[in-house]
Amino acid sequence: MTNRRLKISDPALRFVLIMGVVNLFSDMTYEGGASINGLFLGTLGASAATVSIVAGLGEFLGYSIRLISGYISDKTGRYWLITFIGYVINLLAVPALALVGSWPVAAALVLAERIGRGIRKPTVESMLSYTTGTLGKGWVYALNSALDETGAALGPLIIALVLFLKGNYRTGYAILLASTLLALTSLAVARITFPVPSDMEGKGSVRSVGFTTSYWLYMVGASFFAAGLMSFEFISYHLSSTKVVAEQWIPILLALSTLVGIIASLVMGKLYDRVGTPIVIVSVLISAAFSPLVFLGTPFVAVAGLMLWGVGYAIQDTLLKAIVAGELPEGRRNLAFGLFYTGYGIGWLLGSIITGLLYENSRSYLIGFAVAIQVASLPLFVLASRAKGQSGQPAAAR
To answer: What's the rounded Cα separation, in Å, for the pair 101 and 105?
Structure first.
């Protein structure tokens, strides 16, 4: 990473900021929806296990389809077209929930939203990776995550305002059409301004020719971490059904945990560029403590647990992306992101099924599983870091 002072006129910085604005409005849409999806499914007759499995299946489909979209992007070079298709499906599915009347149809739209997000994720992360040589891997994804997490905080606050004003869930979904249109407009601006993002990568960049041992170890470690993270739909269902928190406060709690995630992303991104793996280890240990606080605590303790859960999402949105950006093989960076998050999605799906079933039988076993599986990711991250150091991989490739 260069130490020169960056200005807003710098193409790499402007691209990261513009895509950050796109993701700000996008997250405003689907995180606003996520803050009530679990509650809405519950009102339509879905059980706790159903909510957890739908959320887990959505994440799995959203992550696994990244392998396909990443492969197609590398083969065709049509990354902007694939990006637009993904955003359209991702965003329009949310306001469409205002029109449904049964939980299977609502669940299908929740799945569609995740699938759309998965389609465009590898291309977006790949395009951003062209700026990391100038800005640093940790900082690029931290800055982008901070912007989209700002939207992720605003969306639930908008929904909370709707509920406080005695509006219903359908009204909340309908209002999110505005942020959907703003996101798609911003994306069009990004496409016009930066038609070929690869032009921003330095000419001297060096990358591996294939997938390294450290790449695979990082993937398995990430899948372990994902298995214990849990979706907000599942957590909100618990908080609402057990009356730990009044339902009109739940979107606000999502916003607060997201704000914690914004701060954590910026701090962790900067520290990752400086110290690497140690910040990953510390962050995972912090995140792993969320489940006992959320599922066994009083209202105030549960809120504290949600703040730690926000750190977990910052790990997902910043540190894991920075890790993958250092392992991208030449000519297959879209596939590399897609494949990595397919493994992550498998871990998420299996974890969601297990936690959903355990919730119905033993909260203690649920907590034990969530903590243990996230801590189990740490040795894999350490082994991956050591394998990377022993490979003799050029610094520019990292």
So the answer is: 7
pLDDT-derived band at 394, boundaries 50, 70, 90: very low
Within a domain: 331: yes
What average pLDDT does the chain have? 88
Q: Is 74 among the domain residues?
A: yes
Q: How far is CA 379 from CA 286, 306, 326, 357, 373, in A?
A: 16, 25, 19, 27, 11
Q: What is the mean pLDDT of residues 77-87?
A: 95
pLDDT at position 92:
97
User: Is position 61 within any domain?
Assistant: yes
pLDDT value at residue 233: 78
DSSP state of 201: S
State mean pLDDT over 274-298.
93
- 30, two tokens: 């689907």
Q: How far apart are the C-alpha atoms of 297 and 57, rounded to whole Å?
A: 27
Residue 396 CB contacts under 8 Å (≥ 6 apart), including other chains: 133, 204, 205, 206
- Rounded CA-CA distance 88/177 in Å is 12
Instruction: Note whether residue 202 is domain-resident.
Output: no
Task: List, for residues 210-262, the tens digit of each pLDDT value.
Answer: 788 999 999 999 999 999 998 887 888 888 888 888 877 888 888 889 889 88
Q: Which domain holds residue 230?
A: 11-197+207-397
Question: What's the total number of domains in the chain?
Answer: 1
Q: For residue 26, give the CATH number of its domain.
A: 1.20.1250.20
CA 186, 320, 50, 61 dihedral sign is positive
Does position 361 have pLDDT exceeding 90, yes or no? no
User: What integer pLDDT is reported at residue 226 of this predicted model?
Assistant: 93
